[in-house]
Amino acid sequence: MVNLFDSESNNIETIRLERIITKLYLLVFSICIYSITIYILFSDITIDQSFTNPSENDYNNLLISYSKSLDCPCNKISIAYKEFIEINTTFHQICSSDFVNMKWINYLFNEGYCAYFLFLSNLCEISQTTINNAIEQFINERFINTKLISETEFNIQIENIILQFQNVTLTKFSRSLKLLRDIMNGNAFVSSYFLNWYWWRERNSTFTTIPISPIIMKDGCSCGTQSDCIDSGGIYYSLNNHEIFAMPGLHIGCSVVDTLLYSTFEC
To answer: Which of 25, 44, 246, 263 is the one with CA 20 to 30 A from 31?
Structure first.
């Protein structure tokens, strides 16, 4: 019997132990050889191969064949968004209508309506300036990537970047408008157009304090206690407040800002 660990001893126990160790050694050796053979047969052999300045088609073919192992570093890792992105804006049609034209505003005999449309004109101008400045800043920023990516992944990343830009710009503008409303409502500014408080001053009065009373809408909502009261707009008799002509697209709030935000200007 094979004895790889023969010590030339005549002791029976020693010889038996050496044969057992030989069997174990051969068993472990066989298992190792078998495992290595299986690994070599079924494992992928990696061969490094370089391609200098591959075309887009070459890259796509390589990506299909070697999607997991393909590594294509970029010589230029950044590029300005304006090199491949063009953003065209479309503003609300009211910002290009006669409602924001000074001719229309000057034709209005009601001072309150003049204030509404003048604020609307300013709001359109501010929104256009804000968005144009945001676009200018955005397209001058750079897209950074150290490795070449597929067209599909690139399009997904760009769509997410543009969507994030739109959300951030909208959020910033909304916060500015909300801050304006909070300042007006928090400080209880009295509107000179009698939107939230009705005030008067008696002739020849020596009192320095002007009496005021809150404007109460048709539904009983008082601008003295709430800032979100809304009433339907229209043309009324000044003596008995009787409605002559209803304007379904115009809603009167407790401030010029609320009036514009709640109005649709539909005919």
So the answer is: 44
